[in-house]
Specification:
The protein is α+β, with helices and mostly antiparallel strands. The chain contains eleven helices and eight strands. It has a domain at about 195-285. The protein has helices at about 5-10, 15-40, 70-75, 90-105, 110-135, 140-155, 165-195, 290-305, 305-330, 345-355, 360-375, and strands spanning about 195-210, 215, 220-225, 235-245, 250-255, 260-265, 265-270, 275-285. The two termini are about 30 Å apart. The structure holds zinc ion.
Length: about 375
């Protein structure tokens, strides 16, 4: 079964022949990731239609679609309409190519291991780019990653330092449950502690929903963009009286999310309502550190790297997150209500784990296993 990945097979040609192959293959995968990053959060198919220029909608010929090279030859402009093409495209292609090369240089000639890490690296990069822009990580990446991680582990026991495919698949499932479980716990506890920010405003205060922001008494203004990151984020105002331009509702709850404005049981398109006044004594604003997307994302990482790696990833990512958060607040670029997506920190920490020296990873695993035995004594340990 594992003959394809047998290092002896891969050693039949010079090592750096494969280095070139990994680099080129990485550039092609990077080109595909660009498509995924654009289309997945917009619920478009990543297979069809063929790549088009977003400006003139012209079909991009294959010779204008060669990773990195085409962008350079065309000097970053569409071949048809000369509209500029973002430099992010060649950068993502180059980053993926370098990532694949790094996997081969670090783990070759163990090709199965190198390829598995290439797949994980691709998932991490796509998730990061989408999370930064849209504050979500699509299921195609997280749930797809879980399946790839478990299947890959069964094929490549070296992923979990296991002797057999079965033992490796079991370790992968342990990683999936451990990683997803810990983050799920954090999300639940986080929701209890500070998931929703409930603010008492005093009696019969008027809150105004403007076009771009929520206006609170005392001239306070919070842009919707700072509160409604995800589709499920909702601002709730239990109102004594709601007034729109042509309508008035007594004792109705106002619920505003990205896609819907509910007043009592009546539903509106938020775009169609530019002004609304609510008399209330409190508001509830969503505020979450991590979401269910992060739970599934950590599950996928655990499926590839094992449960010990998810704990490392969690610790390092919260450290990076705290450091960056404090830095941004100190530099005055971040308000209390705005926040950064958490997925990229998890991804960065997972990359650090992959390229950490083998002795460090082994030591970390040994210590955690010992700790585990102290907590769970006897046969279960
Ligand atoms: Zn064009």
């Amino acid at each position: 079964m594992n003959n394809v990945f047998d290092p002896l097979v891969w050693e039949l040609v010079p090592f750096h022949f494969w280095s070139v192959v990994f680099f080129v293959f990485g550039a092609i995968v990077g080109s595909f990731l660009n498509v995924c990053v654009y289309r997945m959060p917009r619920d478009l198919s990543v297979i069809r239609p063929h790549s088009r220029c977003p400006h003139c909608e012209g079909r991009i010929a294959w010779r204008h679609n060669i990773p990195m090279i085409s962008w350079l030859v065309l000097r970053g402009k569409c071949a048809d309409c000369r509209h500029p093409i973002s430099f992010r495209y060649p950068v993502v292609e180059l980053a993926t190519a370098l990532g694949f090369l790094a996997c081969w240089l670090s783990f070759g000639p163990q090709a199965g291991l190198a390829l598995s890490y290439c797949i994980l690296l691709s998932l991490l990069l796509a998730a990061t780019l989408i999370d930064v822009e849209h504050f979500i990580i699509p299921d195609e990446i997280t749930v797809g990653g879980i399946f790839l991680g478990v299947a890959g582990s069964a094929l490549v026991p070296a992923l979990h330092g296991a002797e057999s495919g079965t033992a490796s698949a079991l370790a992968s499932l342990g990683g999936l449950l451990g990683g997803a479980g810990v983050v799920y716990l954090i999300v639940r506890v986080g929701k209890l502690l500070f998931g929703r920010l409930r603010e008492e405003l005093g009696e019969n205060v008027t809150v105004v929903f403007g076009e771009e922001a929520l206006h609170l008494p005392g001239g306070r203004e919070i842009p919707y963009g700072d509160m409604l990151y995800r589709k499920t984020d909702t601002i709730i105002v239990p109102a004594r009286k709601v007034e729109m331009i042509d309508r008035c509702y007594p004792n109705a709850e106002v619920r505003l999310s990205q896609e819907r404005l509910l007043i009592g049981s009546e539903s509106f398109d938020p775009e169609s309502v530019s002004y609304l006044e609510a008399v209330t004594d409190r508001i509830v604003i969503p505020r979450e550190a991590m979401g269910l997307g992060d739970v599934k994302f950590m599950g996928a990482i655990g499926a590839f790297l094992g449960w010990q790696a998810t704990l490392f990833s969690l610790m390092l990512s919260s450290f990076i997150g705290a450091l960056l958060g404090v830095g941004l607040i100190l530099s005055g670029r971040q308000e209390w209500s705005s926040r950064l997506p958490y997925g990229p920190y998890i991804a960065a920490a997972a990359v650090a784990w992959i390229f950490m020296p083998a002795e460090f990873r082994a030591g970390w695993n040994r210590n955690l296993d010992e700790l585990w035995r102290m907590i769970v004594p006897g046969e279960w340990g």
